[in-house]
């Protein structure tokens, strides 16, 4: 997964889709800790 041309995650699809960096980038969250809270609420 790239964000602005920089690799932020690599691996299996399950690993990438659950990576807090990817979630933060996809949802526009500035803080990875906020992304982790979001994932906690979804899963």
Write structural notes for this entry:
The chain has 43 residues and is mostly helical. Helix content is 56%, strand content 9%. The chain has helices at residues 13-17, 20-27, 32-42; strands at residues 2-3, 6-7. The protein has a two-stranded antiparallel sheet. A hairpin with a 2-residue loop joins strand 1 (2-3) and strand 2 (6-7). Helix 2 (20-27) packs across helix 3. It starts with a strand and ends with a helix. The model has no long low-confidence stretch (mean pLDDT 81).
What is the element layout, followed by pairings?
Layout: E1 2-3, E2 6-7, H1 13-17, H2 20-27, H3 32-42
Antiparallel strand pairs: 1-2
Helix pairs in contact: 2-3
Q: Roughly what percent helix?
A: 55-70%
Number of separate helices: 3
Net shape: flat
Kindly report the average pLDDT value.
Answer: 81
Largest beta sheet: what is the strand line-up?
Answer: 1-2
List keywords for this structure.
single chain, 43 residues, mainly alpha, two-stranded antiparallel ribbon, 56% helix
Short description:
The chain has 43 residues and is mainly alpha-helical.
């Amino acid at each position: 997964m790239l964000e602005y041309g920089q690799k932020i995650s690599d691996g299996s699809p399950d690993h990438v889709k659950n990576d807090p960096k990817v979630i933060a980038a996809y949802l526009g969250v500035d803080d990875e800790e906020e992304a982790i809270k979001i994932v906690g609420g979804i899963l």
